[in-house]
Amino acid sequence: MKTILKIARAELRNLFFSPVAWFLAVVFMIQCAVFYSGLIYNWSKMQELGMKSPKFKGFDLSFTKIIYLDRDGIFVNVMMNLYLFIPLITMGLLSREVSNGSIKLLYSSPVKTRQIVFGKYLAVMLFNLLLVSIVGIFMVAGAFNIRQVDFGMLLSASLGFYLLICAYAAIGLFMSSLTTYQIVSAIGTFILIFILSRIGSLWQDIDFVRDLTYFLSISGRTEKMLFGLITTKDLFYFFIVISMFIGFTLLKLKSGRESKPKYVTFSKYLALVVCAVLLGYVTSRPALTGYLDATAEKSNTIHPRVQKIVKGLTEEPLEVTLYTNLLGKNAGAGFPEGRNKYLSGLWEQYQRFKPDMEFKFEYYYDLSPDSYYFRSFPGKSIHDIAKEVAKAMDLDLNKFRTPEEMKKIINLEEEGYGLVMQVKYKGKTTFLRTFQDGGMWPDEAQVAAALSRLQNLQMPKVLFISGNLERDPFIFGERGYSIGAGAKENRPSLVNNGFDVDTISLDHRDILSEKENIAMVVLADPKTELSAIKKEKIQQFINGGGNMLILGEPGKEDLLNPLMTTLGVQFDKGNLIQVSKHNTPDILGPFLTDSAAYLADEHKLIQFRTKFIDSLYTGMESVTPVVYSDTGSFAIQPLVKAMPQVWLKRGKLVKDSVQPVINIAEGDHKNGPFMPVVALSRKQNNKEQRIVVAGDADFMSNRYLGGDYLGRGIYCWLDHQEYPVYGPRPIPKDNVIKITPNTASALKVSFVWILPAAVALLGSIILIRRKRK
């Protein structure tokens, strides 16, 4: 060990008595300073502008991520350019010894080859610590410049950064042993790092080769550590790669001192590679992988609510089959070349808590009869179209099942023949869909809902009453409710978040709450009068403690008011008016009340609940107010409140003429505040009964995206907050810059100019004194 330390000290002396090391240190420091100080300055200016508002409480983002890990952050940019630094440090480690003949002296001395290699590599590891310490300067600065900076994330990122440069150094050490020319060694290191960075994207359509190249690829290995998630398989990967290239170096130096056949030497290299691959395979198994989420808010870990559902799958493995249609939506993400990204990006976070997952992949081609492909390829069959598409995408059509073969396995017509997953547990199956909204893969809420279906006999059911021209949960027009309820292709819809959605005609069926596990019944804007039997069944459901969502429109008050007599609420007659030069007078922008903030763990509602934002509003059109009294059995809370300037017009409203004015003679008045939406609750049959009444049916329609966060919040509240399974993340604590733009500007001068100049001056003094000696 003493010999290794002596060699390391001698090598460090050579490094720091060389202008290359000092030059690289200065350039590296300037690079870090430019990215850090530039971002701090720009954000401090934005914050100064925001603080002019007394309501400003910080940004809804993490400055630890923005300053250090974002696209313009320190770590991302310095790691992109590492391949320019490390080869210049390692190019002379062994090639210099060989070229000047000192390697022969080392061989003739009582120094072992491994001591030479380990000593040289230890010196580079210590120099790498210098680079980490330079980044550490800006981490310490961040502690003073950012409120509650996430040190766990930064330490994890520093570890990933250090392991990556050590891996590059091991590659450089090996390349240095191959040649006596330092420039050739540096170029060889550049090339090998480039190959290892790109090899993960090569031959991804071949199963065995895909797994091999994915293991060998160094690209993306630090991504999880950069964002605070340390995994044992990533640690083992760097240990294996470093050990493999150090082993290559030892074999190269020993082969230069031994006279053995080339096939013997080659077999040793091959054995080392095989051992590395096998060890990498074993250490990357989900059951053997350990995880440490070092972030302050555990942002890399699925929410505890989702964890509970995943951990409930204990009796047998979870089987996940990905069905990829050559001619379907999102097909590219399901092809073999995207498989590793699919597994690591989507499923690894769940495998952490359920290691025994089995993944299967099916490839096929099929089309619905009205597909645009038939219009694009007139006169051609599905098989002909598939051949053309496969040829254009350079794919082997023989790997895809025909429609006839696929229908013998499963019929995916109801799923639109898109990219879809089927999850299976204990013989029970359900679909997990992909979407065309930018994110594509399902979020925690959709995965949790699908896994819950596998464990529960029944899921909560939402029944939409039909038969009187009510809003339909499966219609895609403006009046329909499909976006928020029955659209399988829409991520936030009820069917993708744990609910079963159906319509019910009360002329033929009764509402059986207990038997059918009904979460709520929706009566949305009937246009004709309900029959006596329908009214009776609805009243029985309410009296039995069932949850309801009742939505009406102006001019139809008489159709619904008789049903709500026992509730203590009624729809007033008339239209609410909000005069605006931009919209027709019946379009409102009412605000949510404090009670609405607690409907669900929607991100916007959490921000409102915690007073991070001071108000939220929603869009409404053609609204009649809900009037109520507190004398009934229900506790009533308004959810939406019209703005103070809103007034009620009882007479006929003409929207496409001059702006309406209050006509007292017709009964118009401004005796607000007006409440378009209210929530009712009471104890009934040993449970809490919940009802929401809204004087507008449009705000939850497709035109208004299903009511957005308010609509989803209402559905969730009526289901007693069981579904959707929200995994809310707290507002980041490191969301405020603690310095002014003037201070940030001074820091920029100090970090970009003064500090690097001081380091350059120190290096110059050391080099000059060394030369004089």
Automatic annotation (TrEMBL):
InterPro entries: ABC_transp_unknown
Domain of life from the UniProt record: Bacteria
GO cellular component: plasma membrane
Membrane spanning residue stretches: 20-41, 74-94, 121-145, 151-171, 183-203, 235-251, 263-282, 750-768
Molecular function per GO: ABC-type transporter activity
UniProt keyword terms in alphabetical order: Membrane, Transmembrane, Transmembrane helix
Domain ABC-type uncharacterised transport system: 460-577
Protein name: ABC-2 type transport system permease protein
